[in-house]
HNH endonuclease (Novosphingobium flavum), 112 residues
Amino acid sequence: MARKHSKHDPYGDLHREEEAPAPAVPCWLCGRPTGETIVWHHPVPKSRGGRDVVPMHPICQQTLIANFTNSELQRHGMEVEGLLANPTVRKFVDWVANKDPDFTATTAKKKR
């Protein structure tokens, strides 16, 4: 039986092929292309029966978590427009629009 790979180079052509980088996926909240770190966010929290996930920047997810409760996120569901109607979130999205995709910063803590 013939070998599938050479015993001297078990990974074959994996080292030789230069693949083009995958196209950047847009962030669900701000619409900017995502960077190296992508957070898969549940628009409807898992605790509220959410199963769908959307790609987001970590800073965008932190902003949502700081400004909305799970009940509010459940009410908005997959509707980004409802979340952007919040003045704090709109101000954040306008501020982060020109930042680098891998930009990180501290965000406001959750209001308790």
